[in-house]
């Protein structure tokens, strides 16, 4: 278990009065303090870590959120915000001395504005819920994390979620127009809106992907898009991952930006085929799904280009979807990759690193070596278009040492990603899972400056502490200036 | 006021750090410039020294297959765009060129300035602004420390997004030293669909219909009667509502026809082909009608797309203005015939549901007397000030350019 911030004994001792005070702010069922009822909240989708919170609060109004935060701020109580709890990096892991602020009651669509192509929702609305609200008019919300049926848009903001569509349509950060945020001191601020760009600092950019460390989102404005006229997918099998990777590079180099471009390696293909029977070819090392969307004439034209590029790279199977049903079948295996791997192994750890695309063969080879070193199998699904890898490390939690081995294997994979020019996390966030790896990517000065951003929002480090940063420093300490220079630079330049 | 020529001209990132560290120790306010092409935007500053990034230039990474480019902050944008064009690529957000509007020659400006000003063009609706395409940065904070953020890959949620956070900060948080951007293939061809003679209100409705269709319209602008003569060598006979389509030839043709059918209730659609279309959109991007060699105040206003025309109608009752619309009506370029009327403009923006206005051109004395950037409500202004203090505790980087100087909060 990773070390979490030391619980504040004083806060633990005051639990009873804190619960009573919170009940004054959020009446009725909105405060949960019975162990049996809090059990449902003790972990998120990173189930290897569990922790009972101090108390669970489910506010219903922005005013309540503001009062809860102001109360916690005043009384030095930590707060962990939580959406649907689908985080894969432990972003919503409770702390023993912290209020778990669950935003699930904020579940209403507030405004659908087709003329401005903007939808205003509360943060507890699911990602797919937004699309459901506008699909009758032919619109949709583009970022589509695999968990979109369950994950909340507030959580998407916290994690800057992506998905299959992000290559062409961007991540959450590119599709959010505005936020209402309550700061830890209870202040309510509005960032953006239905208009574009910020009038000052781009705080919307800082909030998106901040993993609940900067503020609590109480309202979200997103842009919606009209559904493309048509979408068709090609299923392409390759004898090696290198040739598949080259095909991806060639497609991009040809100026084609697919709506989605996903790759699976042999173990993932076999697991998925056994599970959903999508009729995937089983004699290939890599399977590519390339989806083109847009006007029909364009899609037909581009699919022909993609086919030609695939053949040039030695593809052994090429099938192009002829119906919506067939397209859905192509995707069924990919979308079920995680549960299907779950069937062949008691447990699995899903990693999330991003690499420059051209490094794929090198990274896959490295993973094979690491697999032998750590004695664990790995299956790979890969957002091929944007270089986002999801190695699934298979292990058995009941075998002593296997979880630790899986974690060590995962950390080695992420180190490799950084080494080839990539990053530690593409879309799942740092959370608690990758916290200790941050120094692989950033030096102390980089991390200090990030923590100073935190200080501007939350000087006492009360919001979601223990996540993202490997160590916490007091803001006062971070505020000191250490300047070692001081000589006049460029003394030879004439001055006025 | 600042003196004429830049005095500090570092050629390496370490020298930038040394210069800022020196300024921090000496408590010497610095004006941060690249080529100085956007120097006239913002509140006039009291700075003792100018730090020019112009000699910190050159590409540091360009991998066309990976759709990524990085350059030192002082690299001229025109040079970068030339290299991209040679590889049939571009910055999808088509950074505007403020030069002509500010009375300077076009084509000056750097990649650092591009991000610091968060430049964007008419494709903003579909493709985003500089903020949406930055992948990573290196910078020197007001503490004299070199800091990096982000990386070179598209998908990255490792830590706070300081790269985007510095977009549009106008050199007040940190001195950018290196910028890494996503680039994209250039569209094979483009065409512009034109509807003539619409009122501002009807044009807004037409643009909304088009942008909400599956026609993948890349840009939508309305050029009213008063400005139509100043585009594409005076070839627009009447007020023009223009919609840009880009992509592969057959796709553009097909979408043009579909759009014409969809917009038939607004009148017949005419077509501008590739070259003329490109010229038109570059002129929209660079605000050609108001690049008139004068210093008459020009505002850049961002409101919800459907509200731009209502805002202009309300303002016309109070002041002499000339206006045209980009971003489906949501970006309003306003030239004031007399004073800046910041108060009246901002009241009108509130009345249409919010947004913001930046005074992008005005004489220094006017810029000194009004809020050039949109003032923020108390808690937001306080948060912004705290953020500034965390990057630049002594307040030496472009002090007062975005917000009037205030005494720093106690540590």
Question: Which labels suit this protein?
Answer:
A: alpha+beta; Uridine Diphospho-n-acetylenolpyruvylglucosamine Reductase, domain 2; Uridine Diphospho-n-acetylenolpyruvylglucosamine Reductase, domain 3; B: alpha+beta; Alpha-Beta Plaits; 3 domains; 4-stranded antiparallel β-sheet; 17 strands; 29% helix; FAD-bd_PCMH (chain B); catalytic activity (chain B); FAD binding (chain B); FAD (chain B)
Short description:
With 496 residues, chain A is of the alpha+beta class. Chain B is α+β, with helices and mostly antiparallel strands and 411 residues long.
Structure description:
The complex is a heterodimer of chains A (496) and B (411). Chain A has 496 residues and is an alpha+beta fold. Among the domains of chain A are: 9-102, 2-Layer Sandwich (Uridine Diphospho-n-acetylenolpyruvylglucosamine Reductase, domain 2), CATH 3.30.43; 109-226, 2-Layer Sandwich (Uridine Diphospho-n-acetylenolpyruvylglucosamine Reductase, domain 3), CATH 3.30.465.10; 230-339, Alpha-Beta Plaits (2-Layer Sandwich), CATH 3.30.70.2190. Chain A is 36% helix and 19% strand. Chain A has 19 helices and 19 strands. Chain A has helices at 9-13, 15-25, 35-38, 62-75, 127-134, 153-159, 166-169, 172-175, 203-207, 241-253, 266-276, 296-312, 324-335, 337-344, 360-374, 402-419, 438-441, 444-457, 475-479, and strands at 31-32, 55-57, 78-82, 98-102, 109-113, 118-121, 139-140, 176-182, 188-192, 216-223, 225-226, 230-238, 260-265, 286-294, 317-320, 347-350, 353-354, 378-383, 388-395. Chain A starts with 8 loop residues before the first helix and ends in a 17-residue tail after the last helix. The mean pLDDT of chain A is 93. Chain B is an alpha+beta fold and 411 residues long. Chain B has three domains: 1-186 and 377-411, 2-Layer Sandwich (Uridine Diphospho-n-acetylenolpyruvylglucosamine Reductase, domain 3), CATH 3.30.465; 189-285, Alpha-Beta Plaits; 288-369, Metallocarboxypeptidase-like (Alpha-Beta Plaits), CATH 3.30.70. Helices cover 29% and strands 23% of the residues of chain B. Chain B is built from 13 helices and 17 strands. Chain B has helices spanning 13-26, 77-86, 111-116, 124-127, 162-165, 200-211, 225-228, 249-262, 274-285, 308-316, 342-351, 364-369, 378-391; strands spanning 30-33, 49-52, 59-63, 68-72, 89-90, 134-141, 146-150, 174-182, 184-185, 189-196, 217-223, 240-247, 269-272, 298-303, 321-326, 331-336, 355-361. Chain B has a five-stranded antiparallel β-sheet. A four-stranded antiparallel β-sheet of chain B has the order 11-12-10-13, sandwiched between helices. In chain B, a hairpin with a 4-residue loop joins strand 15 and strand 16. The mean pLDDT of chain B is 95. Classes of the chains: A alpha+beta (496), B alpha+beta (411). Chains A and B meet through strand 9, helix 9, helix 10, helix 12 and helix 18 of A and helix 1, strand 7, helix 5, strand 9 and helix 6 of B.
């Amino acid at each position: 278990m990773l070390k979490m911030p030391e619980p504040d004994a004083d806060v633990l001792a005051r639990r009873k009065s804190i619960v009573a005070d919170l009940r004054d702010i959020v009446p009725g069922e909105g405060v949960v303090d019975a162990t049996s009822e809090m059990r449902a909240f003790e972990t998120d989708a990173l189930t290897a870590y569990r922790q009972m919170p101090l108390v669970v609060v489910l506010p219903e109004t922005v005013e309540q959120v503001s009062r809860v935060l102001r109360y916690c701020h005043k009384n030095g109580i930590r707060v962990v915000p939580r959406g649907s709890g689908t985080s894969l990096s432990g972003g919503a892991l409770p702390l023993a001395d912290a209020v778990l602020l669950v935003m699930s009651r904020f579940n209403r669509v507030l405004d659908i504005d087709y003329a401005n192509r903007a939808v205003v929702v509360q943060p507890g609305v699911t990602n797919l819920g937004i699309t459901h609200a506008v699909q009758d008019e032919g619109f949709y919300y583009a970022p589509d994390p695999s968990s979109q049926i369950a994950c909340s848009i507030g959580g998407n903001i916290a994690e800057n979620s992506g998905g299959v569509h992000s290559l062409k349509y961007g991540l959450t950060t590119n599709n959010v127009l505005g936020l209402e945020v309550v700061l830890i001191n209870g202040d309510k601020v509005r960032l953006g809106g239905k208009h574009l760009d910020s009038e000052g600092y781009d705080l919307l950019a800082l909030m998106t992907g901040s993993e609940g460390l900067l503020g609590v989102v109480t309202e979200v404005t997103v842009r919606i898009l009209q559904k493309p006229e048509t979408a068709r997918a090609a299923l392409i099998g390759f004898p090696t991952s290198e040739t598949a990777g080259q095909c991806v590079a060639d497609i991009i180099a040809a100026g084609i930006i697919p709506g989605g471009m996903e790759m699976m390696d042999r173990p993932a293909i076999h697991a998925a085929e056994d599970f959903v029977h999508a009729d995937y070819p089983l004699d290939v090392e890599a399977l590519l799904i390339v989806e083109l969307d847009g006007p029909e004439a364009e899609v037909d034209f581009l699919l022909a280009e993609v086919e030609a590029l695939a053949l040039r790279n030695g593809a052994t199977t090429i099938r192009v979807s002829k119906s919506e049903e067939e397209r859905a079948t192509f995707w069924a295996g990919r979308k079920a990759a995680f549960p299907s791997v779950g069937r062949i192994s008691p447990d699995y750890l899903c990693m999330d690193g991003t690499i420059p695309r051209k490094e794929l063969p090198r990274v896959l080879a490295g993973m094979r070596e690491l697999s032998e070193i750590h004695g664990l199998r790995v299956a790979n699904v890969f957002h091929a278009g944007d270089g986002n890898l999801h190695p699934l490390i298979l292990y058995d939690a009941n075998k002593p040492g296997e979880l630790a081995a899986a974690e060590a294997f995962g950390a080695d994979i992420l180190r490799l990603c950084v080494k080839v020019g990539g990053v530690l996390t593409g879309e799942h966030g740092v959370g608690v899972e990758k916290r200790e790896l941050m120094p692989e990517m950033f030096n102390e000065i980089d991390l200090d400056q990030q923590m100073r951003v935190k200080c501007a929002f939350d000087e006492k480090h009360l919001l979601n502490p223990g996540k993202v940063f490997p160590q916490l420093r007091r803001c006062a300490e971070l505020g000191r200036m250490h300047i070692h220079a001081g000589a006049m630079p460029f003394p030879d330049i004439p001055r006025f | 006021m600042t003196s004429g020529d830049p005095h500090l001209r570092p050629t390496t990132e370490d020298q930038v750090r040394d210069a800022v560290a020196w300024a921090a120790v000496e408590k010497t306010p610095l004006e941060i410039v690249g080529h100085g092409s956007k120097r006239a935007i913002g509140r006039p500053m009291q700075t003792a020294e100018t730090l020019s990034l112009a000699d910190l230039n050159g590409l540091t990474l360009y991998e066309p297959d990976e759709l990524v480019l990085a350059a030192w902050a002082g690299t001229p944008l025109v040079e970068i765009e030339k290299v991209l064009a040679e590889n049939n690529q571009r910055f999808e957000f088509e950074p505007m060129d403020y030069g002509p509007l500010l009375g300077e020659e076009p084509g000056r400006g750097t990649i650092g300035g591009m991000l610091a000003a968060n430049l964007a063009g008419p494709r903003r609706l579909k493709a985003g602004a500089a903020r949406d395409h930055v992948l990573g940065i290196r910078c020197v904070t007001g503490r004299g420390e070199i800091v990096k953020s982000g990386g070179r890959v598209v998908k990255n949620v490792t830590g706070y997004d300081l790269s985007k956070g510095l977009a549009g900060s106008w050199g007040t948080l940190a001195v950018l030293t290196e910028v890494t951007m996503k680039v994209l293939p250039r569209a094979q061809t483009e065409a512009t669909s034109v509807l003539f003679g619409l009122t501002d209100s009807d044009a807004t409705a037409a643009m909304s219909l088009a942008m909400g269709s599956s026609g993948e319209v890349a840009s939508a602008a309305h050029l009213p009667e008063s400005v139509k003569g100043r585009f594409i060598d005076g070839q627009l006979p009447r007020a023009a509502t223009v919609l840009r389509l880009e992509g592969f030839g057959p796709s553009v043709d097909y979408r043009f026809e579909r759009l014409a059918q969809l917009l038939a209730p607004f009148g017949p659609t005419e077509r501008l082909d590739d070259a003329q279309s490109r010229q038109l959109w570059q002129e929209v991007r660079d605000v050609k009608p108001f690049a008139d060699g004068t210093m008459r105040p020009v505002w850049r206003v961002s409101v919800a797309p459907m509200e731009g025309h209502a805002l202009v109608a309300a303002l016309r009752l109070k002041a002499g203005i000339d206006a045209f619309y980009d971003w489906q009506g949501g970006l309003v370029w306003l030239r004031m015939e007399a004073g800046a009327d910041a108060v009246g403009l901002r009241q009108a923006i509130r009345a249409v549901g919010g947004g913001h206005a930046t005074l992008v051109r005005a004489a220094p004395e006017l810029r000194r007397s009004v809020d050039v950037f949109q003032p923020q409500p108390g808690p937001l202004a306080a948060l912004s000030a705290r953020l500034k203090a965390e990057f630049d505790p002594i307040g030496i980087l472009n002090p007062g350019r975005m917000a009037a100087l205030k005494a720093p909060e106690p540590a």
